[in-house]
User: Fold this.
Amino acid sequence: MLQGWFIIAAAFAYLCVLFAIAYWGDKRAAEKRSIISNPYVYTLSIAVYCTSWTFYGSVGRAASSGVGFLPIYLGPTLTFILAWFVLRKIIRISKVNRITSIADFIASRYGKSSYLGGLVTIIAVIGIVPYISLQLSAVSDSFTVLTQYPVVAMAEKVSSVPIFADTAFYVSLFLGAFAILFGARHLDASEHHEGMVAAIAFESVVKLLAFLAIGLFVTYGVYDGFGDIFSRAQTTEGLAKLFTMEGAGGYGSWVSLTLLSMAAIIFLPRQFQMTVVECTNERHLKKAVWLFPLYLFLINIFVLPIAFGGLLHFPQGGVNADMFVLTLPMAEHQEMLALFAFIGGLSAATAMIIVATVSLSTMVSNDLVMPVLLRFAWLHLSRRADLTGLILTIRRTTIAVVLLMGYLYVRLIGDSYALVSIGLVSFIAAAQFAPAIIGGIFWKGASRAGAIAGLGGGFVLWAYTLLVPSFARSGRLPESFLLDGPLGIGMLKPQALFWLEGLDPTSHALFWTMVINIGLFLAFSLCSSQSVVERSQAVQFVDVFKRTATGRHTWQGRATVGEIKQLLARFIGRVRMENTFSELEKSLVQVLPDEGVASVEVVAFAERQLAGTIGAASARIMLASVVREEMHDMDEMLEILDEASQVIEYSRRLEEKSHQLQSVSDDLKAANFQLKELDKLKDEFISTVSHELRTPLTSIRSFSEILHDNPDMSEEKQNEFVGIIVKESERLTRLLDNILDISKMEAGKLEWQLKVLDPKEVIEDALAATAGLFQQGDNIRLHTDLPDNLPAVHVDSDRLTQVLVNLISNAVKFCDMDDGTVWITAKAKDGALCVSVRDNGIGISPGDHEKVFKRFQQAGTLETQKPRGTGLGLPISVEIIVQFGGEIWVDSEIGAGATFEFCIPVASDDGDGLPFIKEGSTG
Amino acid sequence: MSQSILIVDDEAYIVTSLEYLMKSGGFEVELAYDGEEALAKVAENIPDLIILDVMMPKLDGFEVCEKIRANPLWGSVRIIMLTAKDRESERKRGLDLGADDYMTKPFSTRDLLERVKKLLSVERIVG
Assistant:
């Protein structure tokens, strides 16, 4: 015999256990030893989704539509399969932005709009009231049913009993007090309720175990397993249709319910609270992705057997299918099992109420009441140091009000709806948040105006197509309102809007609310412009993974080597970038492919390179832009950078120009230096020429004066002196000729009389001209080696003679004073005629070999060693030989004499041919 | 006893002309064809005057002048530099080194003879 007091005591004891768990959870949280921070507790806390609707209602739904109860669990399963794309992003955004509720989330996304937060809160509160009422009626019904044990009888219609005799009213008060004690006992700055989460997780275990226990009892205790129940049901008239899709309300209904519950599992305020706000670690989602569907599977596995069991057990009807979970054990006189089922149902209901009211009260205080109160300046709220008391009062009041509204809804709507249908009204209300949230996290263009329009429109339509009809159905509004439309306008019939018929009320409402919601959301978003705050929030939400995957190691892994290279190339040029990267590769001893992820070293390296060009701070920003920003941000950045790089390019060109100018300047310096050298040389040349001219002139003048002043001089002396005057005059002439020659040669004005000649003749002419040098004293000997068959050369005879005379007179001048010898040799060699003049004199050190061919540059210094020639002989010889296409050089060592040799090409056979042929043929 | 003159030049013809000129002026003449030879002649027999060329092999006229002036025993020797070097800086250098006169080539034989006589007519003041 289950007395009312016993049931109440059991329920109270159970709730005390919950308090104990919550207390323990809060204590552990305070000690930083969280008991909820694991994927299993997280999953169980999400299972707050399974309310008394699931516990009682699923069976009721299955009893009327067979597998029609399933979409409500299929949807969440699908959502969790897709959790990685949507849920994870929402969680991440909420953690980053310290989001405390779904209203906070939406308000925050759309420019921290308090107006929007308030709207969401109102929708949530009104939308959830039916859901709360569902729990209240389930608890009160189950209590009523259980108190009549072992008689299986249904509770009376709620609306027909006075409030103070109504169990539901006391249940509301009791649960209200419980929820206030539980969720609004104190204020937690972080809005995290670890104790509550722990208790909810415990409740999820209890309700699952209770349901499994009933399921096992019905399936294996009352019947002989699944096969037995199903085969019996199939053979029973009226039950067979439950195995078909028609029985489940058709495919359309399936699809809409699936979509609806996909949204509900995230956007119901209590689900958002548990899944998102109370989530302690994003990684827990990984396990929840399959654990939660598993939970749903377990809690649904016995729905059909219990439903069929109930239908088979109570074939006469009169027993609400929503209560089969309770009535079946009662009918089988399983007292404790029935109590366990009641406790399970209580678990499901209290869990929902606690979380829903806590989340709603948070929203109401944070997003609705406080923003309004803070606007009233006369309250001086912003100056009050401690608002805790006020906030707690608001929250407690909210909880009480919400529960009373739930109770009122129960009373107003009565029993005209099944549990599931009431729940679906709330589902569609929650689904109104979907466009604003999904759009908000994937589309930066979603705007505040769009969100307000969509939410507002959707909510109005929700009220019109679902809330109003529920009042009409229960007789609170004239029935004609539903059947004929307001004022008889058929187009506006709430459940067949714009003549859309043939859909079940839920699908119909879902269709129209979503069409209006999404339509307005898109239209207003596209037409309105975003404020700066909105824009920045939009970017932060949509790009949450790019921005918040922080910790250097993470973002450094996001950019490829190619991107880094591209960035560097913009600043330092492609060539330099390639060079620096190849150096980097060498130093890292690894190849860096463009598509590879840029390592820490690469990023740091690039930063250093950039810092050298644009400064450290800019380098950081630029690099961060590549590593973190989305591509279109990157594009903007690059546009800015292109401007900068144009400046850099300009400065690079300037630098190039400056380099060019530098080199021109260097060239000029060198040229100037050369000019100075030339000037110095010219100065020296003139000085030397002057000296060279003065020496013979001095002799000439002196002897002339002596001859003039001494007329009585002996004839012998006179002849000697006149001879000297003549010789010195010749020397003077020769010198002047040389100077003229070399200046003409250098100016290219010398006329060359080129003829094909026998070189031996020219050499003999030169020897004749210099014969006097060898006769002067007996101490210089001449040796010649001149073969007869020397090849002809194409030369100017006088000039070649000049070269030979120069070389021979030099050899005579510099040969050994006491025992001088000069050798003259001519021979053909490699298509050239080579003539060498050798002496046995003091020689020339190899360092001076080049010098002797320069003007007035004889070996030894001018200061100490007076030149014995004009100093122009060899330079003139070089010019002449080069003109003939040959070359001249000296081979000598100090003390070993000197050999001057020149080679000139042999005259070609075809061209100028032999001298006589040419002269003969051309005349 | 007639005064002696040392003629120093590497150009044989110039030496010849100077030798004739000085002999005809009544002086005893010694000849040298380079700087070293000139110093050797001075050491052997101190002349009253030296006609000194500058551009010569082995030891140039400036160095010869310097060495003579560095020896107090030779303080009485007059020196006339006779050179093709006609720049004012070179003239100054010669006079600074202790030359009594500086003449450029080509020169007037009468002028040279007068200067020689004039220099030899007064006692040289050693400073």
